[in-house]
Amino acid sequence: MSRRPAPAGGTLVLAAALAGCASSSSDSAGLADPALPPGAQAIALDGTPLFPVPIADERRSVLERNLAEARAAYAADPSDADAIVWMGRRLAYLGEFRGAISFFTEGIAKHPYDARFLRHRGHRWITVREFDRAVADLEKAARLVEGRPDEVEPDGRPNPSGVPIGTLHSNIDYHLALAHFLRGEWRDAERIHVRRLAGAENDDRICSSSYWLYLIRHRLGDADGAARVLERISPGMELLENFDYHRLLLLYRGTLPATAFDPEPGSVASATVAYGLAQHRLIAGDREGGLAALRGVLDEPEWAAFGFIAAEADLADPTRLSALPVR
C-alpha cells in the first residue's frame, strides 16, 4: 500500500483546483477528515492510512491540464452541473478523492434531482472505504433514474476506441452491486447483476456483471448457478475495455490457463487480475493458497482498484468465504 505522504504536487493540485472557485461548499465539505493523517485520503480496512499514489510525470501533466480546463469551466459558472461533475471527476483521477467528494456534495446541494452526483459520490465513498454511505447514495441515485431514459456516460479516461461503453443507469447498478458485495450482502448484489445482465447491450457489460455474479454465486454456495453464468462467455466476444474480466471468466470456464495473465505491474489491471486469480484458488478449495494470494493483492500500489478493496474486505472478515469449499 502507498503509506507515504502525497507528493508535494498533490496538495498543490487541490489548492489550485479550488483557487478562485466561487462556492464555499467546495472549501469545507469532504476535503479533509479529522480522523485522517495529513495528506491521507482514506483508511484501509486493516487500519492503514492510504495516500495518493504517485503518478508518472507525463500522465500527471495531462491530468493537471484536464483539471485546469475543468476549473476554468467551473469558475465561469459555478452553478453549471456539468462543470461541477467534471471538477469532481478530474480531482479523483489525480487521487484527490476527498476533494472529489466535496464537489459531488456541492452538486447534490445545487442539483438534487441530478443522479450523476450521487452516482459519482457513491463510487468515491467506495474508494475511501465508506460502504454504508456508498449504498445510501447509490440507492437514492437508482430511485432518481427509475423510469427515466438512460444516457451514455462520457468517459474521463477514454478507451483506445474512444467509444464510451457505460450508461448512467448501468454504472449506478454496477457500483451499487459492488458496494453490497463489499458489505457481504450477496443476495442484493446478485439481484442487481442479474438485472444488469438482462439489459446488457454490449459484451463489456456482460463481462463486468458476469465476473462479479460468478463470484457472488460461489459466496452463496451456488456452484451450479455460478457455472450457468459462464455459458454466455466465449473467446470471440467483442470488447472495448473489460479485457481482464473477460480473460478471468475464460479462466473460470477452463479455456484459459492461469499462466496466461501478465498485466502491467502496479496497474489497476494488475490488482484486478491478482484478485481474480486469488478467487480462482479459493473457489477450487485452496484456502491457504487463496488467502496468500489475497494478501499479495495488498502489495499492489493501486489501492483504489476494486480488486484491492475486495481483497481487503475478504481478509478483514474471513466469514465472507465460508460457503467456499476447502480441500
What is the CATH T-level topology of the largest domain? Serine Threonine Protein Phosphatase 5, Tetratricopeptide repeat
Provide the β-strand percentage band: under 5%
Instruction: State Rg.
Output: 19 Å
Most strands sheet: 2 strands, antiparallel
CATH homologous superfamily name of the largest domain?
Answer: Tetratricopeptide repeat domain
Number of domains: 2
What structural category do the secondary elements indicate? mainly alpha
Please tell me the CATH architecture of the largest domain by its name: Alpha Horseshoe
What would a concise description of this structure say?
The protein is mostly helical and 327 residues long. It is built from 15 helices and two strands. The longest helix is centred in the first third of the chain and has 20 residues, at 57-76.
